[in-house]
Write a structure and sequence with these properties.
Helix content: over 70%
Pfam family, one: Pmp3
Number of helices: 5
Radius of gyration: 13 Å
Distance between the termini: 23 Å
Shape: globular
Keywords: Membrane, Signal, Transmembrane, Transmembrane helix
Structural class: mainly alpha
Strand content: under 5%
Subcellular location: Membrane
Family: Belongs to the UPF0057 (PMP3) family.
Protein name: Hydrophobic protein OSR8
Length: 71
């Protein structure tokens, strides 16, 4: 779980430059980053909407638990 200050910084960066907020949360070579980059190039508002959705609604550790159970 992210701290409050980190979450606030990610949200502010996602509003100013959406791929940067996604990069801080997920990394630069992830599917989420490239989706956000393409959406931002196509239109600034879709990039912001996706970035806020990815930061606030999607848990970045959702697959880590599944892979640990398989090991």
């Amino acid at each position: 779980m992210s701290s409050g200050c980190l979450l606030l910084c990610e949200i502010l960066l996602s509003i100013l430059l959406p791929p940067l907020g996604i990069c801080l949360r997920y990394g630069c070579c992830t599917v989420e980053f490239f989706i956000c980059l393409v959406l931002t190039i196509l239109g600034y508002l879709p990039g912001i909407i996706y970035a806020l959705y990815a930061i606030l609604c999607v848990n970045p550790d959702r697959d880590a638990d599944r892979y640990e159970r398989l090991a």
